[in-house]
C-alpha cells in the first residue's frame, strides 16, 4: 500500500512538472476550454498532445444544456467519423511548429461535419490559444480563443 502511494505521488509530480514545463515554454500541449466565438460560452474541453512534432486535439468533455444529449454523435460528419461519438473524437490534427505558430493542420467542426485548414498561436504566456479554421487562405476563416485549463 505504501509503495502504491509513493508511486502515485511520483506520477502526479511528473505529470504536474510536464504540464508546467509545457505551459512555461509556450507549448499548446495540455487541456483547453474552447470558447464559442459567436456566443462567448464554453463549448468543450480539448486535450492537445504532441507526437513526432505533430499536434492532435481530442474532445474530452462537452458543455451542453441539461436537456440536450450529453453524448452526441457526429451526424453531419462523413466517412469513418459519421455517427461516431463526439466525445473522444480527434478534431485537430497535422499541426507542426512554424516559428511562433503551428500550421499545416486541419480542424473538424462537429456541428457541421466540415474539415477546415487550421493554424494556432499560443498567446498570453501560454494561457490562451488562438485557433483559426479557414478555407483556402487564413484570412477566409474564423478564430476561436481557447483558455488553458491546467
UniProtKB/TrEMBL annotation:
Residues 1-24 form the signal peptide. This is DUF2147 domain-containing protein. The keyword Signal applies. Keywords: Signal. The keyword Membrane does not apply. It comes from the Bacteria. It comes from Herbaspirillum rhizosphaerae. Residues 30-148 form the DUF2147 domain. InterPro entries: DUF2147.
Amino acid at each position: 500500500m505504501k509503495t502504491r502511494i509513493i508511486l502515485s505521488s511520483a506520477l502526479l509530480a511528473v505529470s504536474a512538472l510536464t504540464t508546467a514545463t509545457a505551459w512555461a515554454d509556450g507549448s499548446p500541449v495540455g487541456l483547453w476550454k474552447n470558447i464559442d466565438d459567436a456566443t462567448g460560452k464554453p463549448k468543450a474541453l480539448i486535450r492537445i498532445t504532441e507526437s513526432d512534432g505533430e499536434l492532435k486535439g481530442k474532445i474530452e468533455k462537452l458543455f451542453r444544456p441539461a436537456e440536450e444529449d450529453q453524448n452526441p454523435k457526429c451526424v453531419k460528419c462523413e466517412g469513418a467519423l459519421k455517427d461516431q461519438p463526439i466525445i473522444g473524437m480527434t478534431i485537430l490534427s497535422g499541426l507542426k511548429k512554424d516559428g511562433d505558430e503551428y500550421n499545416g493542420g486541419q480542424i473538424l467542426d462537429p456541428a457541421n461535419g466540415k474539415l477546415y485548414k487550421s493554424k494556432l498561436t499560443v498567446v498570453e504566456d501560454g494561457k490562451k490559444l488562438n485557433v483559426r479554421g479557414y478555407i483556402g487562405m487564413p484570412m477566409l476563416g474564423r478564430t476561436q480563443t481557447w483558455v488553458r485549463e491546467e
